[in-house]
Specification:
By secondary structure, the protein is an all-beta fold. The protein has one domain. Helices cover about 0% and strands about 45% of the residues. Strands 1, 3, 4, 6, 8, 10, 12 and 14 form an eight-stranded parallel sheet that branches. It has a six-stranded parallel sheet with strand order 2-5-7-9-11-13, with no helix packed on it. The N terminus is likely disordered.
Length: about 140
């Protein structure tokens, strides 16, 4: 859903996390402050401030202007706001240019936009290998 406020992403043939999100089951509004744990299934978007941990079977988005302090664990994670804590994406993580992150990132696949700031470790797993076309033998 590229039209979500605080998220500036265009459609890209299903490659972006939001291209696969049909809607958000949980939303923390821009003026809201939530303290505690969030668990369960479904997609979640944060425009406000969250202090606590989460484990979500779905996609978690911290929108531009949103803030999260604590541990994030979700299938897919998209950060456009500020995060202080560790982030674990079981599948894919996207960090857009407005993101400011302090903490450890762990994921299988990551995309980091120019301008994003990350202060911490990055741990990658299940490396996907590919053949670089520039290394291919020229055909006769």
């Amino acid at each position: 859903m590229s039209g979500e406020p605080g998220i500036n992403l265009g459609k890209s043939r299903g490659r972006r996390i939001l291209d696969r999100v049909e809607g958000f089951a949980t939303s923390v509004g821009p003026e809201a402050h939530f303290r505690g744990a969030i668990t369960g299934a479904g997609h979640c978007i944060v425009y406000g401030h969250v202090e606590g941990d989460c484990d979500i079977a779905g996609t978690l988005v911290v929108a531009e202007g949103g803030r999260w302090v604590g541990e994030i664990v979700a299938d897919n994670v998209l950060i456009a706001g500020q995060v202080a804590g560790s982030l674990v994406a079981r599948e894919k993580m996207e960090i857009v240019s407005t993101a400011r992150i302090r903490g450890k990132l762990a994921c299988r696949v990551i995309a980091i936009a120019e301008g994003a700031v990350h202060d911490g470790e990055l741990q990658m797993g299940d490396v996907t290998r590919f053949a670089d076309r520039r290394d291919a033998e020229p055909s006769a």
